[in-house]
Amino acid sequence: MRPVTERDIRTSFINCSKGETQRLNLPKDFAQSPWEDLDFLGWRDPGAPERAYLVAERDGSLVGVALRVTSGASRAFTSRSMCSLCLTMHTSGGVALMTARRTGEAGRQGNSVGQYLCTDLDCSLYVRGKKKAAGDGVVEESLSLPEKVARTRANLFAFLAKV
Ligand SMILES: [Zn+2]
């Protein structure tokens, strides 16, 4: 994605109020993000660990989504689980259910959509092999890197479309 500024980020959110958008904490050193390796900028709020954010470029404009991280008791605490965006397998704790309040009337009625995502939201880096999941996360696949990136983006945009 192209490098974005703090102002770009704060004006990109589609599912939270202006007040929330102003209060959220940006990732430390986000200006040094490896933009060329990112399909989206995702981070946990350094001041509120139950909050996470995801900012992506869609059709030339930025779309930001605020997420709630559900840490909840996992039934299979020792099992592995998969991120629904990048399909990386993680050991327990590496994937969390994150829910986004829907936009508009649906959101006002309390509707949300949830997805299991990498808890650090570094999907772009896992896909590119720039970051390794704990416990050898990689599922052997015959897909090329561009195909994996395309799949991750398709999953991302499918998720954004539901918010
Ligand atoms: Zn992921």
From TrEMBL:
Query: What's a Pfam family this protein contains?
Result: FBP_C
- Domain called Elongation factor G-binding protein C-terminal treble-clef zinc-finger: residue spans: 8-163
Q: Which domain of life is it from?
A: Bacteria
Name this protein carries in UniProt: Elongation factor G-binding protein C-terminal treble-clef zinc-finger domain-containing protein
State the organism named in the record: Nonomuraea jabiensis
